Amino acid sequence: MKRPILIHPDPRLKKVCAPVTEITDDLRRLSQDMLETMYDAPGIGLAAPQVGVLTRLIVLDCVKAEGEAPRPLVMINPEVVAASDETNVYEEGCLSIPEQFAEVTRPAEVELRWTDAEGAEHREGFGGLWATCVQHEIDHLNGKLFIDYLGAMRRQMITRRMVKLKREQARA
């Protein structure tokens, strides 16, 4: 089931999310709903707070090449355990900040530890777009948005655009 995506500014997007203590059928259903919502948007990542659930759950799939099989990942309590000194700059966007993009510098490679929806533990390294995406989504779990990496004036300008967008949507 597709879920509505919260649009910035929304106070839920600035909250630190609670760790998942138990993997339940409701949590599995939420992860499947989030994947459906992300693919439909379309996006390459989505964090639970973006659909109003303040728990440490993200989904992502950065496969974009034509004909390449999708690789949907569900990460419960994801944690960066190592990050490279080398950085990458990507133009990032966010489903909670539609049609706004900015260059953000992040570690080029990260190693992650997480639990999947079946309770299995994983540890894997990511680079390129995958590394950027997973860091962006984990930021959501810590109440941080990609615009928080920007200067104050640019961040305020984008926030004003989102307030205007939300007003227009409310009238529609």
Can you describe what's shown?
The protein has 172 residues and is α+β, with helices and mostly antiparallel strands. It has one domain: Peptide Deformylase. Helices cover 29% and strands 30% of the residues. It is built from 3 helices and 7 strands. The protein has helices at residues 25-40, 128-141, 152-171; strands at residues 45-47, 57-60, 73-83, 87-94, 97-107, 109-115, 121-127. It has a 5-stranded antiparallel sheet with strand order 1-2-3-6-7. A two-stranded antiparallel ribbon has the order 4-5. Strand 6 (109-115) and strand 7 (121-127) form a beta hairpin. The two termini are 23 Å apart. The model has no long low-confidence stretch (mean pLDDT 96).
Cα-to-Cα separation, first versus last residue: 23 Å
Let me know the CATH homologous superfamily.
Peptide deformylase
Poorly predicted ranges (pLDDT <50, ≥5 residues)?
none
Name the helicity range: 25-40%
What's the helix count? 3
CATH hierarchy: architecture? Alpha-Beta Complex
Strand order of the largest sheet: 1-2-3-6-7
Report the mean per-residue pLDDT as an integer.
96
CATH topology, by name, is: Peptide Deformylase
CA-based shape:
globular
What portion of residues belong to β-strands?
Answer: 25-35%
